[in-house]
Amino acid sequence: MANDYQHTIAGEFELAGIGIHSGEAVSLRARPAPQGSGITFKRTDLPDSPMVPAQLDFVTGTELNTSLGLDGARIATVEHVLAALSAFRVDNAVLELTGAEVPILDGSFVPWLEALRSVGRSRQSSPATLIEVRETITSRDGCQASYTALPHDGLRISATIDFDHGAIGRQYGDFRLDESAFLAEIARARTFGFKEDAPTLRERGFGIGASLDNTVVLDEEKVMNGRLRYPDEFLRHKVGDMVGDLALLGGRLRGHVVAERPSHRGNVALARDIREQHEREQRRSLIDVRRIMACLPHRYPMLLVDRILEFEPLKRIVGLKNVTINEPFFRGHFPDHPVMPGVLVIEAMAQVGGLLLMDSVDDPEGKVVYFMSLNNVKWRRPVTPGDQILFEMEVVNIRRMAWKMRGKGRVDGKVVAEAEMTARIVDK
Ligand SMILES: [Zn+2]
């Protein structure tokens, strides 16, 4: 699947209501944020407006809602707005709150999604952070929730819930959650609760704002609100909650999660397990990148790769080149109108590709990559100081030690150059 870019919201919006647990009036104003900043809550009602990142490390509670906190600043019931941001592929935003809980609105995800769709999103220039499940992960939360996460191209959730109540019982569903599926199949599902639990919960500070306007309430026999929005609305709401809790990973999750009786606590524990696997992978590939960088024979001023961002052995590599005004070639090309020479753009692309080849040999120190052909070279736009070129190289085929690759260089998401190249690894 092609890599996507980070996005923020293209404008601001504000939604106001009450907190389902606190019962207090609160409003949330969403604002755009720079790339790489992630989703951050900001308590504008507190002195100095403290910020709390929407990330796993800041989870402070998972009972009946997911809460975040940092120092004295708490934010309850973050899961619905986070699910909508995740489904709408917004990576960066600041969510300003005038109180300690996100407003519950109608108890579902849809008011958030509608607000997001009305302002739209705008693309940023860095690639989105992907968190891919690479190997099967099993995660358990006591005897209640259990999960298996498997590799999958995209986000898919299969979930089962089981409640000893005539109106719910056992429900199962399988959802491939791109934006349109989330909107059609999950977004309208409301949170739910049992009438008989309400007094005890209220005593403990939960559900004080809950009413038939924001919660599907079940008495001993039936749903008290009238018609459900989906026949299995309960299940679908739980799947939406999972999307929101898993958004605390701080990246776009790609995997198939099979969940039995999911809970906030279990979702967060699963997210931690997924993160652990992801970080292990990252460490491994980072070591690989350092190793291959060490064996690229080029040195300044001919080393034109700053960093490798992504790497799949024998398949694909993404490398970065920051083009600064201090590059030696700008001195003569051309002092009053600096443009990076097109052939050097292609050279940088070839160096990124060379790293991919070097990783395939056991003794890269003794080898060198020779380029044998260049085809379909196109320069689409000039590269100037301040540009950050992202080179993405893909292996087309490998025949008799000759590697055919296809590459593109992009600046701010726009293609600046493309080429096909063939290279061979030879002994030094
Ligand atoms: Zn919920």
Structural overview:
With 428 residues, the chain is an alpha+beta fold. The chain folds into two domains: 5-279, Ribosomal Protein S5, domain 2; 295-427, Thiol Ester Dehydrase, Chain A (Roll), CATH 3.10.129. It contains seven helices and 24 strands. The strands form six sheets. Strands 11, 12, 13, 14, 15 and 18 form a six-stranded mixed beta sheet that branches. Strands 19-20-22-23-24-21 form a six-stranded antiparallel beta sheet, covered by helices on one side. A five-stranded mixed beta sheet has the order 2-3-9-4-5, with helices on one face.
Question: What's a concise summary of this model?
Answer:
This protein is of the alpha+beta class. Helix content is 22%, strand content 37%.
| Shape descriptor | elongated
Instruction: Using the coordinates above, name the CATH class of the largest domain.
Output: Alpha Beta
* Number of domains as seen in the coordinates: 2
**Chain-averaged pLDDT:** 91
Show unreliable segments: none
Structural class: alpha+beta
Radius of gyration: 25 Å
- State the major sheet: 6 strands, mixed
Q: Could you state the CATH homologous superfamily of the largest domain? A: lpxc deacetylase, domain 1
Give me the CATH fold name of the largest domain. Answer: Ribosomal Protein S5, domain 2
Ligand list? zinc ion
